[in-house]
Amino acid sequence: MAMPERVAVIDVSHWHSTYDASYLRILTDLERDIVGVADANEAIVKDRAERFDSRPFTDYREMVEETKPEFVIALGKHSDMPETFRYLVESGIPFVMEKPWGTDAETVSGLADLAEERGAWAAVPFFTRYSHWAVTAKQMIADGELGRVSHIVFRMIRPTMQRYVEWDSPWMDELASTGGGALLNLGGHGFDIARFITGEEPEVIAAVTSHAVHQKEVEDYALVTMRTPGGVIFHNEVGYTMPTWPANRTDGEQKVAGELGLLRQVPEGLHLLAPERDEVIPVPEGWRAGFGEAVRQCLEAVGDGRPPPMGVRECEAAVKLIHDAYRLAGRS
């Protein structure tokens, strides 16, 4: 399947350019031609350009005009994302932008409206949708194999906020730049997966946040409970409190509990517990997941003339739930 060959990346001081998701590494592994990287920090953009055989630009508009990419990955401070998003919509270039696209739900909703009005190809990389657990859980629920679902648990506790400082994104503890902490940055994955797995539109019924560990402007822990119209309870727990740094580890749990079975992710694959069944379902050989698969799916969709696998309304829905949770947690 044909994929865009010429790609560019905006705001590469964002940690996901070379850490965690490592979009530049993904594009290299996919043998794409990274025609330009842009960032206001000259030292960082030069470093990324040298490491990934690209051209550095301190102005992304100049980069786009000079290099004429066929596809763009946009990163950056959350507060800067709306301006970049609008520029890319006007440019007509297909693009993926890291969540959350802005610091408030109203702005993100306006961006989704704009993209649809202009017919823009814009995607959000909610990579958890490609996990073996999420895909299997969704199918088993749809097929009735788990019976009536009681509750779903999604926990993602990541290491200290110091990692953002060491990963060239010290702005992550500034409320004005981010719009929030762990709930805004990590919680979106849980909110999206709740909608993906259940096929329903949940509402936030309880939320609490904490600044106890790092005592920054933004929260380092959040626990949110949602309920779907069908009665499924979903617990979304996120934080920056995993005490392992510099080891980049995660305290994670993904579990669906139903009347006929319980399905949870384990290191060996998926653990299915049901009447007369207690087994581990291994991850199929060659299974592709994570950010790399999210990028691949987007590139293939563009190449094949298909719409984004996760479009603007997916990001809008997740961000709305995030800010509903903030309001219930006592933050206006």
In a few lines, what is going on in this structure?
By secondary structure, the protein is of the alpha/beta class. It contains twelve helices and 14 strands.
| Count of runs of 4 or more consecutive helical residues | 12
Q: How is the CATH topology of the largest domain named? A: Dihydrodipicolinate Reductase, domain 2
Give the total of beta strands. 14
CATH superfamily of the largest domain: Dihydrodipicolinate Reductase, domain 2
As an assembly, this protein is single chain
Structural class: alpha/beta
Pattern of helices and strands: EHEHEHEHEHEHEHHHHEEEEEEEHH
- Largest sheet, order of strands side by side? 8-9-10-7-11-12-13-14
Total number of domains:
2
CATH C-level of the largest domain: Alpha Beta
On the 0 to 100 scale, the average pLDDT is 97
Low-confidence stretches: none
What fraction strand? Answer: 25-35%
- Alpha-carbon distance between the two ends: 47 Å
Shape: globular
Protein topology:
Layout: E1 6-10, H1 23-29, E2 33-38, H2 42-51, E3 56-57, H3 60-67, E4 71-74, H4 81-91, E5 95-97, H5 105-118, E6 122-123, H6 132-142, E7 149-159, H7 162-166, H8 175-178, H9 182-185, H10 187-198, E8 203-210, E9 221-227, E10 233-242, E11 251-258, E12 262-266, E13 269-274, E14 277-282, H11 290-303, H12 312-328
Helix pairs in contact: 4-5, 5-12, 6-10, 10-12
Descriptive notes:
This protein is 35% helix and 25% strand. The protein has 332 residues and is α/β, with parallel strands linked by helices. The chain folds into 2 domains: 136 residues, NAD(P)-binding Rossmann-like Domain (Rossmann fold, 3-Layer(aba) Sandwich), CATH 3.40.50; 171 residues, Dihydrodipicolinate Reductase, domain 2. The strands form 2 sheets. An 8-stranded mixed β-sheet has the order 8-9-10-7-11-12-13-14, with helices on one face. Helix 5 runs antiparallel to helix 12 and helix 6 packs parallel to helix 10.
